[in-house]
Design a protein that fits this description.
3 helices, elongated, about 100 residues
């Protein structure tokens, strides 16, 4: 089976050097290491592993003001509004007249 792995450069260099020292092809060494890891049994459940925490990114405008956090529903409403405005703009550019929209 052919597959692609994305490895850090340093890990790849170590694997390549280790394969050369053992007189193996890279794929042979990788296969051996994977099989050894699988033979050790499953990893502990995710809940038992230590978690790394990452700060929530904060979006800031060019002037430094913080963009408010929006819910998915609020974001969807904004996107729909923009799509509708773009649609109406495109239609007006092509000479299509639209009935007036009721205020919401």
């Amino acid at each position: 089976m052919r597959t692609t792995l994305d490895l850090p450069d340093e890990t790849f260099r170590k694997l390549k050097a280790e394969a050369a020292l053992r007189g193996l092809k890279l794929k042979e060494l990788v296969t051996q290491l994977i099989e050894r890891g699988l033979a050790e049994g499953p990893l502990p459940p995710v809940a038992d592993r230590p978690r790394r925490s990452f700060p929530i990114p904060i979006a800031r405008e060019a002037d430094g003001t913080v963009t408010p956090a929006l819910s998915n529903a609020q974001l969807q409403a904004i996107l729909e509004e923009e799509d509708l405005a773009r649609y109406h703009s495109d239609q007006n550019d092509h000479g299509v007249l639209h009935p007036p929209q009721p205020d919401q």
